[in-house]
Specification:
The protein contains one helix and 120 strands. The longest helix is centred in the first third of the chain and has 11 residues, at 30-40. Helix content is 1%, strand content 53%. It folds into nine domains: 63-147, Immunoglobulin-like; 151-229, Sandwich (Immunoglobulin-like); 233-312, Immunoglobulin-like; 316-394, Immunoglobulin-like (Sandwich); 398-475, Immunoglobulin-like (Sandwich), CATH 2.60.40.1080; 483-561, Immunoglobulin-like, CATH 2.60.40; 566-648, Immunoglobulin-like (Sandwich); 666-940, Methylamine Dehydrogenase, Chain H (7 Propeller), CATH 2.130.10.10; and more. A four-stranded antiparallel beta sheet has the order 3-5-8-7, covered by helices on one side. The chain has a four-stranded mixed beta sheet with strand order 4-10-9-6, with no helix packed on it. By secondary structure, it is mostly beta strands. Residues 62-146, 149-224, 230-309, 313-390, 397-474, 480-552, 566-643 form the BIG2 domain. Pfam families: Big_2. It comes from Gemmatimonas phototrophica.
């Protein structure tokens, strides 16, 4: 069967044959399929001819089927097209070439078809499915068409590639199956990056856009923002152009690699002698010059970087001092030191961070405006990045620190609370730090509570927290356990008789020294709480005194009560009096008898024409002159007493004028600086700031500090005609052998130390790190780089060493100063050397440093904790050094520090070794001592004189510090040898052959007409007052509040008080007064002691009586800032009006109309019976005591500070003959008696000096 095909237009109509079917074939097999179909339908004959054999009539071909070139078409994008070919065949499979074919689309919105003949083009219009039909005649053939599209393309929003590198961009396609996925890539800027098939290659740094689009549908696109970065690299950052020598800087390398690539790097220096670099990149400048610093990646050897570094001289600004603490209104000169390369401008500008607190002038002068803190900056004008600063603190300043008491005695295990008073500006810190000099002796808490540890002495120091240069000390003495002694150990009395036993408890200060009294037989003898015994009946009993603090400690006395008659003693009151003609006075005898003996007396005048006396003892003045009334016992005529009567036309006045001088000579006050020239020549500076000179062994005032508007602080000399003194306000004065003249220093800071190594060479140092050099005839400043206060300097040739606060040690090498490590923060006060490689410095709390030419080391001073002020050394003394301290003199031999035994050991401030090797030391109270060979000699000493007593115009004593006793013989004072160097506070005597002196720590001495000897005394309290009615009835009062009586044989305690007692005086044996602190006043009426306290909380320092109705007392108010005076009329106390407000210290009278009082600043007052008036003393020193001969017949003296003696000139013709002999002549023996116990430690200073032993 043949199939006929007809092509009609675009349709193909085919007649099927039984062997042929319409199939879709792929274009590549169309030809073969067409051939196969023709074969299947009968084979390849011409369509117009018969199928076989060629016979029969012609048949018109009829389309039987249509063969399409594709069975299905898939289009991958809208707009995509594909050509389809249709072959029309007849039933025999013959190709009907003339047949027409028509084409149509079932859904032209999905795909349409166009074309004519047997070929058509199918074009995709939208995604979907449709059918394309080919028609030829009645034959059709359908073709399935599927349109698949890419719906979207996605690329990363941004991408990055390195220049020269490449990367693959992988787009994400949202496509239907069968969609054409061919893509087109393009770069917006091929000069930055190009792209091919998604492979992007970086060309140069920058950004561009990479676009990808579907080839089948250019509307479907995606872009990525591409950044082309640099290649892998390592770069050194934060690189300075230069470093200063000694600086170091951390360099940083920025490593730029990809992902997890190694970032390890290596550092190196091209010039390690100039700059080194650590493995972490820290660069250290160690030498001047240029160095290349390199860094390299360890993974990528072509990754490297380098910088050129210049190392040069450091350029910086230092402000001196770096910090200052100032008070309001004060000024402080700052200085700026600029270090830079040679030729670099060094000018600076000054700025204050807070001018309302501290202003700074263009010169660097700072003025304190208000309290607060400000930073003052010096800016280098040529390089404003270089600047130096100083912190300025404007604070209320502490001006003074005082510890109370200044001396304390306690027992081991006991405690004592110390007080401290800080004076200064309003708001000044009151905080202190407490320190102990020897914790093995005593410890101190943060609140000042002292605890005794073991027997010994040590210093407790209170240091101001806000200003550590402000300090005060208290001398702590720790003593052993108490012992009780009784005096007398036996006594005989009669029934009804009253006597006193004395019990003393020797114990450490602070330990209760009270006792309780017991009698073994109260029917024989009774005893009171004060040790007063009363005979009751004949017999014997034992009286026992038991220590309250330790009842196992006791002492006893055997008492016998008998009735044997006898007269024990006789006294008369008044013992001396001045009268005018016709005046009378009643003499009152006191007779002590036993066994019923008569107490009667008789009276006799040795000059009745001058003074007569009746049988009752009434004396009548008859005519001008003198008379002695003798009172004799009728029972025992050998017992007598006398009363000296003076009759004058006008009342005798002890003093109409006073003349002041010193027993110690010209040099007095503390000697703070000393320089010995030879055995007979020296220079010294005292604490008043005056300079003294010794020539031929005699001291004289060389120049006053006020002459140069300064207070001199130090002196140095190279000979008797070449000396320099320095002081406050930057003052320097020079002595040329004839006169003193000022030298220009160029500074205003205080200069604390000076040392000359030649007449025209030396150094001076002072506050704020100032160091001046004398070279030739002028001084010039040197740069120290220090802001500390420099206290001392030593120089030898081209080497000098200066020391100061906070352990500062500076060394001069001939051109510059360098700071040396001292190893201490203590203040250093003194420095000296034997050579440049053997130098010693000393300072607070026992600090001793030694330099060996290379470094400083601390010398172990053992238990030395005292402040050390000065040091001197010499090859002439076998390289031994001597050190002045609070505790006396020490020697440094090799590295061993030993205490030196000197004649006296107060606080010593100065040491010097002269050209002959003589060792000198100086200190408190004008003390100057010299060691020649092995022998010490006291060259000068001016102790405070604390008490005086006259028995006649030609006999008086003055006592004071160091155990000094001077005696007046009517024309001159001479020093007497004593067995002690303890301070003596009181003296009293009856004649040239009988006297007593009392002092610190229970010291009691007795004069027998030829020598002073120590007495047994039942108290360890300091004796403050002495008085007696006779040599066998002497009273003493102590700091422990005790009243003691000497009965001619022994001392015993007869009364006690809770307050310290300062003075004792009586008008007769039956009218005795003791007074002291807190207004305490006791009176003895001949039988018992009773209180009659004055209405004050102050201290009654002096008391005098003409009888029970006339008692005068003077002293200081409770704060110690002003004087007080009271009068007792026999019934009550009343305050007295005084012409001055000064603290008053003593009172003594010739009679009730001629009374004298002494006090501060040379005060002498006189009471004329009606009012007080001031007298000129000629002295400004504190006067401790005043005295006169009985009845005011001459012998008038007042004594006080610095061996001051003020002598009275009287109306009665009693003057002071030969008073010019008061000054100490060379050769006067000043050394203590051989064997006298040496008392070591600081004497009271400041306010404490105004109170006996600091109370």
């Amino acid at each position: 069967m043949f199939t006929t095909m007809k092509f009609s237009g675009s349709r193909v109509v085919a007649a099927p044959c039984s062997r042929a079917v319409g199939v879709r074939v792929l274009p590549r097999v169309i030809t073969m399929l067409g051939f196969a179909l023709l074969t299947a339908c009968g084979g390849g004959g011409d369509a117009t001819g018969p199928g076989t054999g060629g016979g029969g009539p012609p048949v018109t071909p009829v389309a039987s089927r249509i063969d399409l070139s594709a069975s299905a078409v898939g289009l991958g994008a809208v707009g995509a097209s594909e050509n389809v070919t249709a072959l029309v065949r007849d039933g025999s499979g013959n190709l009907l070439s003339s047949a027409t074919v028509s084409w149509s689309s079932a859904d032209i919105t999905v795909a349409d078809v166009s074309g004519s003949g047997n070929t058509a083009t199918i074009t995709a219009r939208a995604p979907g499915r449709t059918t394309i039909r080919a028609t030829s005649g009645a034959v059709t053939q359908d073709l399935a068409v599927t349109v698949s599209i890419i719906r979207g393309i996605t690329l990363p929003a941004s991408s990055q590639v390195r220049a020269g590198g490449s990367m693959i961009l992988t787009p994400t396609l949202d496509a239907e199956q069968g969609a054409a996925t061919a893509l087109r890539w393009e770069s917006a800027d091929p000069t930055i990056a190009n792209v091919a098939s998604g492979v992007v290659t970086g060309v140069s740094l920058g950004t561009t856009t990479i676009r990808v689009s579907a080839i089948g549908d250019s509307r479907i696109t995606a872009t990525t923002a591409l950044t082309v970065t640099g290649p892998r690299s390592v770069v050194i950052s934060n690189v300075p152009e230069e470093l200063f020598l000694g600086e170091d800087r951390q360099f940083t390398a920025v490593v730029d690699v990809d992902g997890n690539e190694s970032r390890a790097i290596e550092w190196s220096s091209g010039a390690p002698s100039v700059a080194t670099v650590t493995s972490s990149g820290r660069v250290i400048a160690i030498g001047l010059g240029t160095a290349i610093i390199r860094v390299q990646s360890t993974a990528f050897t072509n990754m490297k970087d380098s910088v050129v570094l210049q190392v040069r001289v450091p350029r910086f600004v230092t402000v001196s001092p770096s910090s200052s603490t100032m008070g309001l209104g004060q000024t402080r000169q700052l200085s700026a030191q600029v270090q830079a390369e040679e030729g670099f401008p060094s000018a600076v500008s000054w700025r204050s961070s807070n001018p309302s607190v501290a202003m700074v002038a263009s010169s660097g002068l700072v003025t304190a405006v208000s309290q607060g803190t400000a930073t003052v900056t010096a800016v280098l004008n040529a390089d404003t990045t270089r600047r130096g600063t100083a912190t300025i603190n404007i604070v209320p300043l502490v001006r003074d620190v005082e510890v109370q008491p200044s001396a304390v005695s306690i027992a081991a295990g006991d405690t004592r609370q110390l007080g401290v008073t800080l004076t200064g500006d309003p708001g000044a810190s009151q905080e202190v730090t407490w320190r102990t000099g020897n914790p093995a002796v005593a410890t101190v808490s943060a609140t000042g509570l002292v605890t005794g540890v073991a027997a010994g002495t040590t210093m407790i120091t209170a240091v101001s927290v806000s200003d550590t240069t402000r300090q005060s000390t208290s001398l702590i003495t720790v003593r052993n356990a108490p012992t009780v002694t009784m005096t007398p150990t036996s006594l005989t009395i009669e029934p009804g008789e009253v006597a006193y036993l004395g019990a003393s408890v020797q114990a450490d200060a602070g330990v209760n020294t009270s006792v309780t009294w017991r009698t073994s037989d109260a029917a024989v003898v009774t005893v009171s709480g004060a040790g007063q015994i009363t005979g009751i009946a004949l017999g014997s009993a034992t009286i026992t005194a038991v220590s309250v603090a330790d009842t196992t400690r006791r002492a006893s006395s055997a008492i016998t009560v008998s009735s044997a008659p006898g007269v024990r003693s006789l006294s008369v009151s008044p013992a001396a009096i001045s009268l005018q003609s016709s005046q009378t006075v009643q003499l009152v005898p006191t007779v002590q008898v036993t066994g019923g003996a008569s107490a009667g007396v008789t009276y006799r005048s040795d000059n009745p024409s001058v003074a007569s006396v009746n049988f009752t003892g009434l004396v009548t003045a008859m005519a001008n002159g003198s008379a002695t009334i003798t009172v004799a016992s009728t029972a025992d005529p050998s017992k007598t007493a006398t009363a000296a009567i003076t009759v004058s036309a006008t009342p005798t006045q002890l003093a109409t004028a006073w003349t002041a001088s010193r027993l110690g000579g010209a040099l007095h006050e503390d000697v703070v600086s000393f320089d010995g020239i030879d055995a007979n020549s020296a220079f010294a500076v005292n604490s008043k700031g005056d300079v003294f000179r010794m020539v031929g062994g005699v001291w004289s005032l060389a120049t006053r500090g006020t002459t140069f508007s300064t207070q001199f602080l130090a002196v140095s000399a190279t000979g008797v005609s070449a000396a320099v003194a320095v002081g406050t306000n930057g003052v320097i004065a020079r002595f040329d052998g004839t006169a003193w003249s000022a030298m220009s220093s160029g500074v205003t800071q205080t200069l604390n130390g000076v040392h000359l190594d030649g007449p025209t060479s030396g150094f001076a140092v002072g506050a704020g790190g100032v160091a001046l050099r004398l070279n030739g005839g002028s001084w010039s400043s040197t740069t120290t780089g220090s802001t500390q206060t420099l206290n001392s300097v030593w120089v030898a040739g081209s080497v000098a060493v200066a020391v100061g606060t906070s352990g500062e040690v500076l060394r001069w090498n001939g051109s510059t100063w360098t700071r040396q490590t001292s190893g201490t923060s203590e203040t250093l006060y003194g420095v000296t050397g034997i050579s440049g490689s053997d130098v010693v410095a000393v300072g607070t709390f026992g600090t001793v440093l030694r330099f060996n030419g290379t470094s400083w080391s601390t010398v172990n001073g053992g238990n030395v904790t005292a402040d050390l002020y000065s040091v001197s050394g010499s090859t002439a003394n076998s390289n031994r050094y001597y050190i002045a301290s609070d505790n006396g003199l020490y020697s440094l031999n090799n590295n061993s520090v030993q205490l030196v035994t000197t004649p006296y050991a107060p606080r010593l401030f100065g040491t010097s070794i002269d050209a002959s090797g003589n060792v000198w030391t100086s200190g408190q109270r004008g003390s100057v001592m010299r060691l020649s060979g092995t022998t010490w000699e006291t060259v000068n000493l001016a102790p405070d004189l604390i008490d005086a007593w006259s028995t006649a115009t030609s006999n008086a004593w003055a006592v004071g510090e160091f155990g000094f006793i001077y005696r007046w013989n009517g024309s001159t004072w001479s020093r007497q040898s004593t067995p002690t160097t303890t301070t003596l506070n009181a003296v009293w005597g009856t004649s040239t052959t009988e006297a007593f002196a009392g002092g610190d720590d229970g010291t009691m001495l007795r004069w027998n007409g030829s020598s002073w000897t120590a007495m047994s005394f039942p108290s360890t309290g300091s004796v403050y007052g002495l008085w007696g009615s006779a040599s066998n009835s002497v009273y003493a009062v102590t700091s422990s509040g005790e009243v003691l009586r000497f009965n001619g044989t022994s001392w015993s305690i007869v009364a006690t008080s809770s307050s310290a007692l300062w003075v004792v005086y009586g008008s007769s044996a039956n009218d005795v007064y003791a007074a002291g602190e807190n207004g305490t006043t006791l009176r003895f009426n001949g039988t018992s002691w009773n209180t009659m306290n004055a209405p004050t909380a102050g201290t009654m320092a002096g008391i005098w009586s003409a009888g029970p109705a006339t008692v005068l007392s003077v002293g200081a108010n409770s704060s110690g800032t002003g004087g007080i005076a009271y009068r007792h009329n026999g019934t009550t106390w009343s305050a007295m009006s005084m012409p001055v407000s000064s603290v008053l210290t003593s009172v003594w009278g010739a009679n009730q109309n001629d009374v004298y009082a002494t006090g501060e600043t040379g005060t002498i007052l006189r009471w004329n019976g009606t009012s007080w008036s001031s007298m000129t003393s000629g002295s400004t020193d504190l006067l401790w005591a005043v005295t006169g001969a009985p009845a005011g017949n001459g012998g008038g003296f007042a004594v006080g500070y610095n061996s001051t003696v003020v002598a009275a000139t009287s109306t009665g013709g009693f003057g002071v003959a030969g008073y010019r002999a008061l000054t100490t002549a060379r050769g006067m023996e000043l050394d203590p008696r051989a064997g006298a116990k040496l008392v070591r430690g600081a004497l009271p200073t400041g306010k404490a000096r105004k109170h006996r032993r600091g109370r």
